[in-house]
Structures are given as C-alpha cells and as structure tokens.
Amino acid sequence: MSFTIPKTQHACVFDKNGGPIVYKVIPVPTPKPSEILIHVLYSGVCHTDLHAWRGDWPLATKLPLVGGHEGAGVVVAKGSEVKNFEIGDYAGIKWLNGSCMGCEFCMQGAEPNCAQADLSGYTHDGSFQQYATADAVQAAHISKDTKLDAVAPILCAGVTVYKALKTANLRPGQWVAISGAGGGLGTLGIEYAVAMGLRVLAIDGGEEKGALCKKLGAEVYVDFTKSKDIVKEIQDATNGGPHGVINVSVSEKAIDQSVEYVRTLGKVVLVGLPADSYVKSSVFMQVVKSVEILGSYVGNREDTAEALDFFERGLVHSPFKVVGLSQLPEVFKLMGEGKILGRYVLDTAK
Ligand code: 8ID
Ligand code: ZN
Ligand code: ZN
Q: Domain Enoyl reductase (ER): where (predicted)?
C-alpha cells in the first residue's frame, strides 16, 4: 500500500501563547527515522490544548505551535527504523509523543514521567493538522474498522481517566466521585468506572450535564452551582463519602472539597490541572482519616492498549460532536466557559 503525500496541508497554528489561532496552509512534516507520518483524520480537543494555547502552566510550549494530542488517522509514511507499524495501519497520536526509554522512570513503564518527555501539541507539533509525526514506539495502535472520530477522545481523555481509576485502586461496588463529570475526561470517567463495577457519583454544573451524567450511568448527580453544602450532600448520598475521587475539573476549590468529602481511608486522585493551584488538606484530618492524595498523569503504552480495548468492546463510547478543524477557536471559547458536554472532535478536512 502506498499513499501520495502532499507537500502542504491545513493546520491551526499560533505564534504566541494567547495570540490568534490561524487556520492556514503549512508544509507537511517529514518523519525522522524513528517516526511515522500519520494522516490525521480526526482530533479531539482536550482542555490541555486550551492550557497550552493560554500558556498557563509552569512549562513552556514550543512556538509557533500546532496543538492537539487526540489524533486518529492512517500511517502514510514511516522512517527507516520503524518496525511496529505498516503503511495503511490505523494509528493514534497521544500526549506522550516520545520519551528517552533509558531513564529509571521509562524503565518502569512510567514513560509520561520521563524528564525528556516529548509532548504532542506542546513540545512537538500535534494533531490540529492533517499530517503529523509521531514516535513509532509511543504511537497508539488502533484496530482496523475502528471509527476514527469516536476513538479520538480515548487517546487522551480515555487513557487518562482509565489510568486514574486504576490509581484509585477501588473494588467493584465501591463509590467513586467524579468531579468535572460532564466534560471530556469526566464523561469517559463515568463510563470506565461503570464498566469496572464501581458506583458513580457525578459532580458538575447545570441540568444538561446532570442528565448526560445520569444517562452514562452515574447513580447520583450533584450540581456544584446549586448545592448549599456540597461536602454533606456527597457524604449523605454515599453513606459516609466516596471511597475514591477522580478530580477532572479545572477548579482548585473542587479539589479542596474532595479532600473533605472523601471517605476515611479514601483516595483522592488529582488529574485536572487548574493553573497556579495547590491542594489544601488539614494535616490532622488527613492523618486521622488516613486519606491518600495521588497524582495521575495520562497513561503508559499498556494503559493505552487497555483503554482502547474497553472502547473496541463497546464498553465506553464518549459523547462527542464533530466540527471542522477551522472551528478550533470557537471550541476553545465554549470550553473556557464550561459549556461543552463531553468532547468536541475536529474533522481535519474542514
Ligand atoms: O494526565 C492528566 N493529568 C491530564 C490529562 C488530560 C487532561 C489532565 N488533563 C486536565 C486538563 O488539562 C484539564 O485541566 O484535566 C482537566 C480537564 O480536562 P477536560 O476533561 O478536557 O476538560 P473539560 O471538558 O473542559 O471538562 C472540565 C469540566 O469540569 C467542570 C466543567 O463544568 C467541565 O464540565 N467543572 C469546573 I471548570 N469547575 C467545577 C467544579 N467546581 C467543575 N465540576 C465540578 N465542580
Ligand atoms: Zn489531553
Ligand atoms: Zn526516560
């Protein structure tokens, strides 16, 4: 199989953080010997892409930058060293584009924690373009016949919440609270949690998000915009507090509340990355309740394969809406206002 690769393509590019996002024609990149070139057909838009554009984290992005790290497409070229992909295979671009593979963290399969991690849509041009390069070792393998628009959100949101649920180490029948449940990570978090046999309490704002969370399998929905005493409401609904909390909101306050309402011996997992934030935990309460606060950062290759397997078996199917790549600025606006239900997926042909 061979493909004709154009010299130029459409992409969304910005030259400075917070500056204009321009939909324009740029050159198609050439893969290094260790990389594949993916014709990206669809890309999810993660809230991380909004952080990257704003530049609100203590880690600089490359500039100019093509964002995006939930890209699904077809391998159209490969470097001379690539052994694990063939031309025509389906492949996914994820947040971790490549790592050193030699440090103590890479050796343990904690590749996202590598100090030399190369990040799609952050330090490496990502999936908001029609053709993108990806390190062949880290690129995701997607089975043929998979719907590429539907699978795109799994590549970051799905992998991340799946790994966060593994980090919480809960047993079937236990309660998990998902804070930020109506967004991209949260909706998938509900579905993975249900598939893992957990009871889900969803927290987000507004009736539409509540209806969606319930439809996806949450038993209880708590509306943070209406609740008078959120800690009490959550503890009452779960008979003493959830055994675990997956924090995927972009709110420092929501994270602080989760440390309060979590059950004794519970696990608070931090995933959402609000800018300039700290977790506030009463040392006395944390000791007496023996609560664990844990960070969880995307997932490794094994987590990716497992998260994709749940998708391919039909256990999770993120609610998503497809719009054209050129619509990225509008998607960012809606995301910043907290108005997105599930995920927006960009069709790179439009
Ligand atoms: O590896 C990681 N740790 C990782 C991977 C991927 C994404 C971390 N993230 C981070 C993103 O950078 C972002 O900070 O997770 C966060 C959520 O990403 P997302 O799911 O892509 O964002 P979204 O679709 O905008 O959803 C966020 C939801 O949080 C709700 C919003 O209403 C929205 O539905 N929310 C907010 I903002 N404040 C809330 C509050 N106080 C809240 N929900 C409950 N309580
Ligand atoms: Zn992401
Ligand atoms: Zn490393």
A: 18-346
3-state secondary structure of 277: coil
**For residue 1, is pLDDT > 90?**
no
Q: Is 169 helix (H, G, I), strand (E, B) or coil?
A: coil
CA distances, 280 to each of 95, 252, 285, 286 (Å): 28, 9, 11, 10
Q: Pick the residue whose CA is nearest to atom 33 on ligand 1.
A: 183
**Model pLDDT, residue 125:** 98
Q: How far is it, in rounded angstroms, from Cα 201 to Cα 175?
A: 7
The two three-digit tokens of residue 303, written as one number: 């987590």
Q: Which residues, judged by CB distance below 6 Å to any ligand atom, belong to the binding site of ligand 1?
A: 46-48, 51, 156, 160, 179-180, 182-186, 203-205, 224, 248-251, 253-254, 271-273, 296-298, 335, 338, 340
> Is the pTM here over 0.90, yes or no?
yes
Residues with CB under 5 A from ligand 3 (ion): 99-100, 103, 106, 114
Mean predicted lDDT score pLDDT of the chain = 98
β strands within the chain, DSSP E: 8-13, 22-27, 35-44, 71-78, 90-93, 96-98, 118-119, 131-135, 140-142, 175-179, 199-204, 220-223, 244-247, 267-270, 292-295, 320-324, 343-347
Using the mean position of ligand 1's atoms as its centre, give its distance from the Cα of residue 179 in Å.
Answer: 8
Q: Would you kindly state where each structural domain of the chain is located, as residue ranges?
A: 8-155+299-347, 159-295
Does domain 159-295 fall under CATH 2.115.10.20? My reply is no
- CB within 8 Å of 104: residues ≥ 6 apart: none
State which of 252, 271, 304, 318 you would mutate to test the pocket of ligand 1, scoring each by most atoms of that ligand within 8 A of its C-beta: 271
The model's pLDDT over 61-77, given as tens digits with 9 standing for 90+, comes to 999 999 999 999 999 99
Angle at 291 between CA 230 and CA 204, to 5 degrees: 30
CATH of 8-155+299-347 among 3.40.50.1370, 1.20.1640.10, 1.20.1560.10, 3.90.180.10: 3.90.180.10
